[in-house]
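Hi, here's the filled form for the chain we discussed.

Project: internal
Contact: R.S.
Residues: 500
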Amino acid sequence: MNHGKTRLWIAVAVCALGLMGIGAWALPVAVSGLGSGPEHAQAVAAREHLARVEDLSTAFHRVAVAVRPSVVSIRAVHRVRTTSDVPHPEVPEEFRKFFGDEWFDRFFRFEVPREYRAQGQGSGLVVRSDGYILTNHHVIRGAEQIEVKLADGRTFQAEVVGTDPRTDLAVLKINAKGLLAAKWGDSDKTRVGEWVLAIGSPFGLDLTVTAGIISAKGRSNLGVADYENFLQTDAAINPGNSGGPLVNMRGEVIGINTAIRSRSGVNAGVGFAIPSNMARRIVHSLITTGRVERGYLGAMIQDLTPQLARSFGYDKTQGVLIGDVIADGPAARAGLRAGDIVVRYNGHVVRDAQHLRRLVADTPVGREVPVVVFRNGREETIRVKVGRLPDRSVDATPPLPSSSRTENSLGLSVRELTPELAQRFGYPENTRGVVVTESRGVARMAGIRPGELIVAVGDQPVSSLQQFRKALAKHDLKKGVRLRLKGPDGFTRFVFLQVQ
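And the returned structure, exactly as it came back:
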């Protein structure tokens, strides 16, 4: 009995050794030509990873299939009026030959008004199944005719429901039902490095899909809109993509493609999209009321530089400096004043001026919020009842001729404001003070503009050239000096100048 078991185990062992030998012999045959060194192992590993690459490709495809029916192409027709120079049609050809074309072109050429229609191209997003379309304001600005083309090829004439130039968004309406509305995502949860797809009509090529990642968040000060908080992406965005969606790998819209930064005018890997959380608020407001209502603080604010911070005895750079408050505005009524540094607004730590502007704009009108400011070496909490942002524009100031000597190494040329200069630059006739006539070097880099009044040097008010020179002489310019400036619009701001 024992001998039988022994023979059985011997047979099993022989079979196992044989199978191992076959496997060892068969493996090099299966990967013929690769050898058995490091390249062999790398190739085997690469083949395993290729399956996952295919999975990513499939994900891109499925996202595109899910979102494309919600993307539209927009054609906006504008009437363009211009003039062109043409020779006088009644001049006989014999006279032209005798005097010469050059003489006639000089004395008989005149301007003829011309008018033609120009067509602009953009993209849009279905935000409601009953025909509401979101796009960029600049796509349809000034258009006399707007045509929307759906993914299924149908075309509709669109009407403008409302526009918001401050964020560069607009809502259109077409007479269509049963459309597939896009699914919104939470742009606040978007992460840098996350895969995204941009869908739109670049150069008029409908439903084009490009892939990239989120390159950065919170981009501002680009000069695209008044309220900026862009997502940056390297997904290819070109002319015609404006108004189309930027979507994540769940098929959710996290941004509205709006602008690119490029010297050539085409994609250079730096594109910008309005975050979905901002866009959703604008869409809801435009559809329900036809306009956007924003909170209003009534203060002129500016970013805080390290030098300005130190001049106020503040040892941080996070915060926003109030340069001026508008008379009888919410800030003035609450007790905020020029020179206050806003540290927190309604519980939010304030990063910079753009951040504070967005926080105030998103505050419901009439709500009272706590504002923490740094003043006279300590923090104070002031409660402000937020007002409604008025619609208004500020006229540009004409350039001031340079006509005085440079006062110091700061690069400033100044003179006392005369009644003639006051009238020229929009100041009240009885205004007195020191006006900047030229800005160079340090002053120019700090953003000081000709035509601004210097109303204070450090903490000392100045209203004459003598007072300005006397106050300036008290400061070591190598350590720097804080100036308070006032523009023709009546608002003041602070700058810090330092001679290196």
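Let me know if anything looks off before we file it.
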